[in-house]
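In the design runs reported in the main text, the only information available to the sequence generator was the tokenized backbone. The following block is the verbatim input for one such run; it is reproduced so that readers can re-run the procedure and compare outputs position by position.
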């Protein structure tokens, strides 16, 4: 039989739920943190970070459309659709703080988080963006983004990346071994959810038309809540050069803190979990409700 102290320190078990086509899980009490994953990942890929934060947080994690356990509507795929999905999930929670939650996103999920904060500021208290794609060339800080010529209509279908096609062709054990070989610095607890998410990924995602991509600077210009922008080193795979990160911070509608974590690539939290969790925890504690 567990003691009261053990109950307080044990990590809460995830409770699954669903809002329309979006699957999500909750842990802990009142929702404080909302995690949004990157392309081909799933909500479960945040489990190591949730464990590192400890049991004192109310956590919500969603599977994006076409990922994890979520369905895939036959409509354009992109940041607006993802943001509306995320807003629907938050609207479906019975215990949100009137000032909103802190939204943490990686890559595609970071773009979603920025779009959500601009679309529904009533739902978002603060935002953490882990290595979002900037959607523009590297320019000097303060310069205007290159003009977009795409019309406001869905773009052409994408193609599945070769690496993802190759990983999906492997059996589960081989997929984990491939992840370990390609990412020797990742902890073992990262590998199973990473490998599982690749099998869960719906290949029809790359067959759907896509929304025109909006540069990160344009999305952040509509965000007035506090933002933590985390990125790694470009030569290790980070998508955000320091000059572009600085330009994004200058363009934002609110306060932006930029944290560059040396030695990390695109998956900052997996490459350098210690510095990532330290930066994340500091920001969360300062903006917790």
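Verbatim output:
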């Amino acid at each position: 039989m567990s003691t009261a102290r053990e109950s307080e320190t044990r990590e809460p078990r995830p409770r699954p739920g669903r809002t329309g086509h979006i699957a999500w899980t909750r842990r802990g009490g009142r929702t404080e943190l909302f995690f949004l994953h990157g392309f081909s990942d799933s909500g479960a890929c945040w489990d190591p970070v949730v464990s590192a934060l400890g049991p004192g947080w109310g956590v919500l994690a969603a599977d994006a459309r076409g990922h994890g356990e979520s369905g895939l509507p036959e409509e354009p795929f992109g940041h607006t659709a993802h943001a509306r999905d995320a807003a629907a999930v938050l609207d479906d929670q019975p215990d949100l703080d009137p000032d909103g939650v802190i939204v943490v996103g990686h890559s595609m999920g970071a773009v979603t988080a920025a779009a959500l904060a601009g679309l529904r500021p009533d739902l978002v208290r603060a935002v953490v963006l882990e290595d979002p794609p900037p959607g523009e060339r590297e320019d000097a800080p303060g310069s205007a983004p290159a003009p977009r010529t795409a019309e406001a209509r869905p773009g052409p279908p994408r193609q599945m990346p070769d690496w993802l096609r190759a990983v999906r062709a492997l059996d589960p054990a081989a997929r984990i071994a491939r992840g370990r070989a390609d990412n020797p610095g990742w902890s073992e607890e990262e590998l199973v959810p990473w490998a599982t998410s690749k099998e869960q990924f719906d290949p029809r995602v790359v067959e759907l038309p896509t929304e025109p991509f909006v540069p990160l600077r344009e999305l952040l210009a509509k965000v007035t809540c506090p933002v933590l922008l985390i990125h790694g080193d470009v030569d290790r795979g980070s998508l955000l050069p320091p000059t572009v990160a600085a330009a994004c911070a200058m363009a934002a509608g609110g306060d932006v803190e930029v944290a560059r974590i040396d030695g990390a690539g695109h998956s900052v939290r997996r490459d350098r979990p210690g510095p990532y969790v330290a930066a994340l925890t500091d920001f969360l504690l300062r903006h917790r409700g």
